[in-house]
Amino acid sequence: MASSAAASDETDEQASRRRSSNDDDAASSASASASAAVNAEWKNIQKRAFCRWANEHLRASGLEIGDLATDLGDGVVLIRLAEALSGVAIPQRYNARPTSRTQRLENVTVCLRFLERQQRVRIVNIGAWLDLAAIAFLCFITLL
After folding, report:
1. CA distances (Å), 119 to each of 51, 69, 83, 101, 105, in order?
2. Which of 4, 47, 101, 104 can pair with 74 through a Cys bridge, CB separation 3.0 to 4.6 Å?
3. Residue 143 pLDDT class (50, 70, 90 cuts)
4. Any residues with CB less than 8 A from the CB of 107 and at least 6 apart, and which?
C-alpha cells in the first residue's frame, strides 16, 4: 500500500511537471506569435514607405509601384527608377516588355551593372535572382 501511495505521488508529480511544461510551451508559442505579428507589421510599414518613396521619384515617368516584389521583378520599372534617381539614362539596351524569366533577369542585371559601374554602388553577396530587384531597390537609397 505504501508503494501504491508513493507511485500515486510520483504520478501526480509527473502530471504536474507536464502541465507546467505545457504552460511554458503555450506561453512561448504565444510570445513567438506576437513577435511574428509585430515583425510582419513592421515589414508591411517598410514596404509601404519604400513604395511611396519610389512613386515620388517615378511620378514624372508616369509609372507607379504597388508591390515591390512584383512590380520591380521584371527590371523595367527598376531601370526607370535608377534613371530617375541618377538623372542619367542607362545606356545599355534592355527588354522593355520582358516575357521570359531570362529577360527579366537580364533587365535586373542591367540595372545592377549600371549601379555598380556608373553610380559606384558596391553590391556584394547577391543570392537568388528573385531577390535582385529588392536588393537593387535598396541600393538606390545610397544614391540620395
Report:
1. 22, 23, 11, 26, 20
2. 104
3. low
4. 74, 75, 76, 78, 79, 94, 95, 98
Question: Can you give the pLDDT at residue 35?
Answer: 82
> Which triple of cell numbers denotes residue 89?
539614362
Q: Is the pLDDT of residue 5 over 70?
A: no
- Average pLDDT in the 133-143 region? 59
How far is residue 42's CA from residue 51's CA, in Å, rounded to a whole number? 14
Which residues span the domain enclosing 96? 2-143
Phi/psi for 120 (5° steps) reads 60, 40
Tell me, what CATH number does 15's domain have?
A: 1.10.418.10
Nearest to 110 by CA among 69, 71, 67, 80: 80
Total domain count, the chain: 1
